[in-house]
Amino acid sequence: MSAFAAASAVSRTAPDSAEFTAELDPQWTVGDKLHGGYLLAVMARAAGEIAHHPHLTAISGSFAVPPRPGPATVAVELLRAGTGVSQLRATLVQEGKPAAEALITQGTLDDADSWWSSVEPIDIPPEENCVPATADAPGAGFRVNLLDVVDQRVDPRHAGFAVGKPAGDGVISSWQRLADGSDWDPLSLLVALDPVPPVSYDLGMPGWAPTVQFTAYLRRLPAPGPVRVRMFATDVGGGRMDETARAWDSKGRPVAQATQLAAVRVPR
Amino acid sequence: MSAFAAASAVSRTAPDSAEFTAELDPQWTVGDKLHGGYLLAVMARAAGEIAHHPHLTAISGSFAVPPRPGPATVAVELLRAGTGVSQLRATLVQEGKPAAEALITQGTLDDADSWWSSVEPIDIPPEENCVPATADAPGAGFRVNLLDVVDQRVDPRHAGFAVGKPAGDGVISSWQRLADGSDWDPLSLLVALDPVPPVSYDLGMPGWAPTVQFTAYLRRLPAPGPVRVRMFATDVGGGRMDETARAWDSKGRPVAQATQLAAVRVPR
């Protein structure tokens, strides 16, 4: 089993139950906070056990209380099983309190090319010419354990934040691989769609940008190999930033996309 | 009271209840289906009665069963009331069955300019040079009652679908006003963010594109006057299309944005 599959595993609490137990893994953290994409993957894995369709297609999550590594439960409710898709709701509960809620659509993905596409894969230098993101970045003030299990190499054009020279474009692009060599799947792509650091770093705002609400669409089954991920913001104001992420597989096809609304502290 | 406020009104079923009644208004329909943005607005209005913060900030909705015009209930659960935001879940129930679920974040919006923005308002001809979208479009096969309460004027560069000559760009831009002259607010903007027709019309796919999952972010309080809305797709394949909508107010500031995953039938 891959490190990701093990970390996001769920077990039914009883044979016909729609409630699952999970063990939230401290490896998938940024500082002391579990990564949002990882938490959604745990919830989506539980929902997938109940769904009448095989693949995660859409997920929207709202994070109320940051859960801690350790035991948690996921309660799933099947809202509807239609012909083409199943719709579900999942609640992640820890210490008796709801920590996160998700709306989930399961469908059937394939690996066919697009019928029509308007977005080309990002133009990013080869992996070996990109800057490895490290778990112990100097001056970060906390350890990004996640970067021990996700190999992320950042386009040097938007890696200037690391030396106090952000480009100011509100863009960060990277290559991403799972560190244990396993391939991406629709669930692990949720981690790739919420890269570290947030694009606010490229705007000169080096601080935590907690996710308020996050939505991802999984578009097709990814080909083996690394994904290219581009994240960009369009508007920062009123203490909020939007971030859009798009991922292309090794064949250059769009495989997933996400948007999130995050809280930011604007410099004075 | 504006037509929109009346159509989306909710009443508590009892003084301290978190359950509300609503009367879904047949005016806010496309064919015989209630508009998704309108349904979310009804749910958000109910959530706003429970929230500790005044303005809708983010909403993600999953549509299971298309509700019919007539009585419905909205059950709201407050997941968390934090310092900056309230997080809630709402369920729209009709005839005893959940028809739609929404995750909602309420916060505090203002009308200040952006601190940083990368997206300019769309370049669209003046309203009087745009093409009015009519409720009784020839050949549509159904009546778009919504277009009697929302004045929508489409950029002629992407109105070719109406005469069988779609531009093929996957873009439709429009001016939008509420027909009764009232101004946009964070709830009514949910209607503006899901314009009719879907961008698939600009790709030569004139058919219903039912929403699978929809997410909107409200960014600031809109200035009085019309909004400019641009909707675009990035990928069509596997029976699915993504649509992104952005709205700018009469001062040219981004006020709201949305993404949706919709089902489409690709031409052979």
Describe this structure in words.
2 copies of one chain form a homodimer. By secondary structure, chain A is mainly beta. Chain A has 2 domains: 3-107, Porin (Beta Barrel); 127-263, Porin. Chain A has helices spanning 3-7, 36-50, 146-149, 189-192; strands at 10-12, 19-24, 29-30, 33-34, 55-63, 70-81, 86-94, 97-107, 116-117, 131-132, 150-154, 171-178, 211-218, 227-232, 235-237, 240-248, 254-263. In chain A, the strands form 2 sheets. In chain A, strands 1, 2, 5, 6, 7, 8, 10, 11, 12, 13, 14, 15, 16 and 17 form a 14-stranded antiparallel beta sheet that branches. In chain A, strands 3-4 form a two-stranded antiparallel sheet. In chain A, strand 7 (86-94) and strand 8 form a beta hairpin. The first copy, chain A, is globular and about 55 Å long. Chain A starts with a helix and ends in a 5-residue tail after the last strand. Strand 9 (116-117) of chain A pairs antiparallel with strand 15 of chain B, so a sheet runs across the interface. Chains A, B: Pfam families: 4HBT_3, 4HBT_3C. Chains A, B: Residues 128-264 form the Acyl-CoA thioesterase-like C-terminal domain. Chains A, B: This is Thioesterase family protein.
